[in-house]
Amino acid sequence: MLMKRRLNCRWQTVLLAAVMAAGAAHASVTIGGTRVVYPLDQREVTVKLTNDSRNPSLVQVWLDSGDSNAKIDDSKTPFVITPPIFRMNAGRSQTLRIIYSGDALPQDRESVFWLNVLDIPPKAVPKPDVNTLQLAYRTRIKLFARPPTLPDTPDDAPRQIEWKVVPADEGKGQALLLSNPTAYHVSFSKITVTANGHRYEYDAGGMVVPHGRETFAIPKMEGVQSGQIHYIAINDFGGAIEGDAVISP
């Protein structure tokens, strides 16, 4: 328990530095996939981690329900993940086991949680008169808890999305309102709107929850009432599902 508390404290200290340096460096511990799908009729699922560096790392893993700023001890989910803390030697792999506790979850739609992997490299030996910055890196990917009796398939869900144009927040241009009538989460990596002889692109990514709505503000889009949509959605394996749609009146 003492070790976990110390790690939590260190994570809070170094996370800001890691975010600031995210564009200049990369974590050495990588996850084997861009998302995790947990069929709720299975006893457990496994996730593979690999240390691609030449140095060992101390790794802490946990799940949260959507609040990226929640403390580890306060992140309550209906899953157990083992091992929660471990050392990874250079060039080695580690398999995580995620086990569903059986706590009640909706059975008519997917639920989403987040897998966090905190990579803490060994402490560098400081050199005289040289400033150093010790970094830890957190990777966070989605975990979809999927009941076994959902209708259709997740690959069918993107083509069932309904698209409408609405005013953007604060009246600045226009946005797309996406309505998802399916039981699956639908994640998009890119959306292109063709209307009035112009093309408007949105590549910030986003997700629409089951039986929910989400609004994406489209840069520079104005005066659009109808048009064509080309989208790139993301499947269970991180691959692309491309499709076309029409803006609804």
UniProtKB/TrEMBL annotation:
<dbReference type="GO" id="GO:0030288">
    <property type="term" value="C:outer membrane-bounded periplasmic space"/>
</dbReference>
<comment type="similarity">
    <text>Belongs to the periplasmic pilus chaperone family.</text>
</comment>
<dbReference type="Pfam" id="PF00345">
    <property type="entry name" value="PapD_N"/>
</dbReference>
<keyword id="KW-0732">Signal</keyword>
<keyword id="KW-0574">Periplasm</keyword>
<keyword id="KW-0143">Chaperone</keyword>
<dbReference type="InterPro" id="IPR008962">
    <property type="entry name" value="PapD-like_sf"/>
</dbReference>
<protein>
    <submittedName>
        <fullName>Fimbrial chaperone protein</fullName>
    </submittedName>
</protein>
<feature type="domain" description="Pili assembly chaperone N-terminal">
    <location>
        <begin position="28"/>
        <end position="150"/>
    </location>
</feature>
<dbReference type="InterPro" id="IPR036316">
    <property type="entry name" value="Pili_assmbl_chap_C_dom_sf"/>
</dbReference>
<keyword id="KW-0393">Immunoglobulin domain</keyword>
<dbReference type="InterPro" id="IPR016147">
    <property type="entry name" value="Pili_assmbl_chaperone_N"/>
</dbReference>
<feature type="signal peptide">
    <location>
        <begin position="1"/>
        <end position="27"/>
    </location>
</feature>
<dbReference type="Pfam" id="PF02753">
    <property type="entry name" value="PapD_C"/>
</dbReference>
<dbReference type="InterPro" id="IPR018046">
    <property type="entry name" value="Pili_assmbl_chaperone_CS"/>
</dbReference>
<dbReference type="InterPro" id="IPR050643">
    <property type="entry name" value="Periplasmic_pilus_chap"/>
</dbReference>
<dbReference type="GO" id="GO:0071555">
    <property type="term" value="P:cell wall organization"/>
</dbReference>
<dbReference type="InterPro" id="IPR016148">
    <property type="entry name" value="Pili_assmbl_chaperone_C"/>
</dbReference>
<feature type="domain" description="Pili assembly chaperone C-terminal">
    <location>
        <begin position="179"/>
        <end position="241"/>
    </location>
</feature>
<dbReference type="InterPro" id="IPR001829">
    <property type="entry name" value="Pili_assmbl_chaperone_bac"/>
</dbReference>
<keyword id="KW-1029">Fimbrium biogenesis</keyword>
<dbReference type="InterPro" id="IPR013783">
    <property type="entry name" value="Ig-like_fold"/>
</dbReference>
